[in-house]
Amino acid sequence: MAASDDVVGPIESLARSRPALSVTANLSVCIDDVDLAISTVEDRIRVQVPSVEAGVRLLRGQRERLPRLSRVLSAAALTAEIRVGSAVVALAGAEATPGRLGRALSLGPLEVRPQALVAAVLRVR
Fold first, then answer.
1. Cα gap 122→7, rounded to integer Å
2. What's the Cα-to-Cα distance from 73 to each of 6, 44, 86, 108, 125, rounded to whole Å?
3. What is the DSSP letter of 5?
């Protein structure tokens, strides 16, 4: 059994033990004092972050875990979108295409969407 603060471990175990993994979720999670709303829409996992500031705080606290999480999601053929408001500011997993910003920030296989990030900062939708 994985440690209580390791949410990636159980997903990794399931991805390795089953050929197809389907996720249905509607829950609230608090990580590093950031309240996240996690849900699924069709074949995507949505992680709703309350603000860009909260997302940056979460990134700082979970930086080492993000590459592993993205690789596990890819192995399970799943994609998670990180949203601030209606803006999808990042993708992790199967459909993520890492770019220059993600590489510059050493985020591994995480796709950061600069235009959406700017829109989230400016609250333009």
1. 31
2. 14, 11, 22, 13, 28
3. T
Q: Phi-psi bin for 115: left (phi > 0), alpha (psi -120 to 50), beta? A: alpha
Q: How many CA atoms lie within 13 A of 52 on its CB side?
A: 16
- Tens of pLDDT along the chain (125 residues) come to 344 456 566 666 766 666 566 677 788 989 889 999 999 888 789 999 999 999 989 888 888 888 888 888 888 888 999 999 999 999 999 999 988 887 887 777 889 998 998 989 887 54
Give the C-alpha separation, 119 to 65, whole Å.
26
Q: Tell me the DSSP string of 27-61.
A: EEEEETTEEEEEEEETTEEEEEES-HHHHHHHHHH
Q: Quote the CA–CA distance of 125 and 117 in Å, as a whole number.
A: 11
Calculated CA dihedral for residues 20, 24, 29, 35, nearest 10 degrees: 120
Q: Which of 4, 81, 97 is nearest to 49 (CA)?
A: 81
